[in-house]
Amino acid sequence: MNTILFVDDEPHILELMKMHFSKKYKVLTAKDGIEALTRFESDGIDLIISDVKMPRMDGMELLKKVKERSDVPFIVVTAFGSIENAVDAIKMGAYDYISKPVNLKDLEMKVERALDYLSIKRENIELKTRMRSKTSSGIITANKKMLEILDKIPEYAKKDLPVLILGESGTGKELIAKEIHAQSQRYLEPFIAVNVSAIPEDLFESEFFGYEKGAFTGANGKKIGKFEAANKGTLFLDEIGDMRLDHQAKLLRVLQDSKITRLGSVKEIPLDFRLICATNKPLSEMIKEGTFRQDLYYRINVIRIEIPPLRERPEDVEAIAKYYLKMYSEKFSEGEKGLSPKALNVLKSYSWPGNVRELENVILRAMINSDSDEIKVRDLPDEIVGNQDYMDYQTFLMKKKVEKERLYKELQKKFVKQLLRKSGGNISKAAELANMDRRLLQNMIKEVNDWQS
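The structure corresponding to this sequence follows.
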């Protein structure tokens, strides 16, 4: 639970804030800047919300002293119409400001954004520390092709050029992207990962470009977009092949101009980030079909990395399986489990359509099923065991069920893809064309995206 420190010289304001925010956060209070600074230095504070005018030490002085010690987000509460104080506070490093009388819903939104910002910042610091200490990248392999890729990462990292990572879902494309960032000169700056297929089409501009307060209905405050968040660091666009053509054009313009303008603003913001893209789709074929821009392809396909699927790396199955056995044994505080020779043979003979991600899931399920210190064939999921050369009647029924589900998924993917193509990507129009409820179609699209992730 995050801890918020409210600072105000009016006791009834502090009591109101404590009553309102204590449902979701640990709330501490202070009546002036000196008391707040003492609490800040002794308690683990995640966010400070402070009035400006207070006795002994005002909010601006408190902001200055906090920023000398830490980068904890700071929201300033200013008198109505006192824009000068707000501007000065932002220049001094405040995350945001809010005017009196305080609208609690607006403040809730600002608190959530500030804590999200803090969470991302802490994750990046943790990543930098882990990567710089030369711990494992998280990629376990004895495969010759994978080892060649890992050997080239320092060279790729040094060149600061766009990277395109190709590979099936679950092969570890994001791990490769993180390792390139960690070994680059940008390692102290943010690594921003975005799953393109997970962003609703009508939110693309607000998510990527950000917006100013009042830019559109519901824009109650400023938002930093993904492009700006990645400034000086690395932007990782996963599933770039799912990006709509008009959005591809906007991305290309940003790459060409190295600047953006937030929605609701006319001010241009210069950018400098490294772009790493990944996809499990054949972009060259999509160019022929007219669903991917050739000029964007040339922009992103400078350094190209192709990750082999797990079925082409049988030598990795045992090492990866044992890694997850050890990891989950430690996580669940159990003695480390082994893997019987027969169970290992079953794993090695399976084709792994879901790659490393599927193998992790299988090991976790097997551990839950196992009642001994060794994973046996009986502990493995039916769809894995049913892949063997023989099958009994129960295995046949299980495989029949799996096959029905696979065919259903393929049909749904085809239905959604054709419908969105015909409607130009407009979900409302697509629902109308299919004579179905818009929400039902949105759920179907989400299911398809989940299957592909």
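The domain at 136-308 is CATH 3.40.50.300 (Rossmann fold).
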